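thread from #wetlab-drylab

HS: before we spend reagent money on co-crystallization trials with zinc ion, can we at least see a predicted complex? here's what I'd submit
DV: go for it
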Amino acid sequence: MDNIAHWLGGMALTGRPDLFILIFIFSNIPDILSAPFFFYYVIKDGFPIKKKVLFEWKPPQEYLDYYRFFHSLFGMSIITAVFNVFLPQYTQVFLLCYLSHIILDVFSHGGFWATRIFYPFSDFHLGFTKNHWQHKLTRRTIFLILILMNVNILLRHKIF
Ligand SMILES: [Zn+2]
């Protein structure tokens, strides 16, 4: 999903509206870490950096390996262990945000973009999911669930 959806996902799973700025960053970490590799391989393939890339670019296996590592439970464990060395007081929030990113992407990516949560040990992925940038129903359903979960949290924290 996109950055806003991941932010809402992190907010929903952590239930910490007070940390909303950190949660925005933490819940987008798998994409932030994939981004340099994404731009490197897109430019290498001579593709213009436009939204079109997602529709037409067939990523090389090398890029998919990085992408899948950052979007896996194995990658999550390693990145969280590194994070824990620097900011241990936020490790729990970081882990929940990272996990929320993977959960959302499991249901909003399909085909070769499908999230392989057990990478590199297994190619397991859901066969029925669709890419959210190509499938409005996927986007709308996920956003609706995320908004309802966040309204619930804000009500519980008496923010309204
Ligand atoms: Zn992602």
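DV: The CA atoms of residues 55 and 134 lie 8 Å apart.
HS: ok that's useful, forwarding to the group
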